[in-house]
Amino acid sequence: MTLLSAQALHVTYPRRHGSPPARAVDGVELGIGAGEIVALVGESGCGKTTLARALLGLEPPTGGRVVFDGEPLRYSSRALKAYRRRVQLVLQDPTGSLNPRHTVYEAVAEGLRIHGHGGDERTAVAEALSRAGLRPAERFFLRYPHELSGGQRQRVVIAGALVLQPELLVADEPVASLDASVRGEILALLLRLRADLGLSALVVTHDLGLAWNIADRVAVMYLGRIVETGDVEQVLTAPRHPYTQALLSVLPEAPGDPVVLTGEPPDPTRIPAGCRFHARCQVLASGEAERAGVADTCRNEDPEVLGGDARAQVACHWARARITA
């Protein structure tokens, strides 16, 4: 069952002086199933965080809709408050997420107080900290963020999300600011929470190694749109989109030479005609697309938007030509 989905989702930002709007999210279809971990990957500026904010209700879409548990998301204060009990955000910078003047207890209890928790607050906070791996929980109640390690601070942030007993976590680069030795512990924690609580998660990351270790499914984003999606093993061992191939080629264990993409991603106010990746595409530049008979199509025809289901899909004329050949 699909728990959360983006349906034909658009988020645009107006520009001054009559300039075209920036199309940060440009017709995304993406679904997250109950108990599923989906990794949303791509380089900086591709729209990952904007998409995550839209799924959380923090960024109202300019087109399309967000659907949670079969119901379209509504944007009244009351509806969003109820929604955020069920869908919680975990940010990448635990130091910036935590108020330095609040104790660990106050940081975790804040969500309960905002949402009017009717039960035993102390028990709920202790349980959330224990689930996040801070045991015995009472030892951490009166500590301040500066007294904790980076990994412990991230666990406090996760406990603050868990205390409301959500059904889905949106984790934006959850281990980017942590030492390598701590990253594995936090990833193992997220997997354990899925196993113990049935939690779903959308993990936003630029790190394909992280996606490999934690996700069931991966969605690769480029310039506001999903360009490849499928089971994590399938996408990361046999990528079909040239952009995914380029991202994977720079990993230390990748075979062959790294693919160095030319230039920067285009300005989202001036998305090129045809395939939005064609100006940087190594397949087009090498003549492979020409030999496959799709070079003109790449330059002039926009690939169709991928569906939001769990099928393996790719938005690339060349990759599709190879499949049908």
UniProtKB/TrEMBL annotation:
Family (UniProt): Belongs to the ABC transporter superfamily.
CDD domains: ABC_NikE_OppD_transporters
Keywords of the record: ATP-binding, Nucleotide-binding, Transport
Name of protein: Peptide ABC transporter ATP-binding protein
PANTHER family reported for this sequence: D,D-DIPEPTIDE TRANSPORT ATP-BINDING PROTEIN DDPF-RELATED, TRANSPORT ATP-BINDING PROTEIN
Database matches in Pfam families: ABC_tran, oligo_HPY
ABC transporter domain segment(s): 6-248
NCBIfam families from the UniProt entry: oligo_HPY (TIGR01727)
Record-level GO BP terms: peptide transport; transmembrane transport
GO molecular-function terms, A-Z: ATP binding; ATP hydrolysis activity
Organism, scientific name: Streptomyces caeruleatus
InterPro entries: AAA+_ATPase, ABC_transp_ATP-bind, ABC_transporter-like_ATP-bd, ABC_transporter-like_CS, Oligopep_ABC_C, P-loop_NTPase
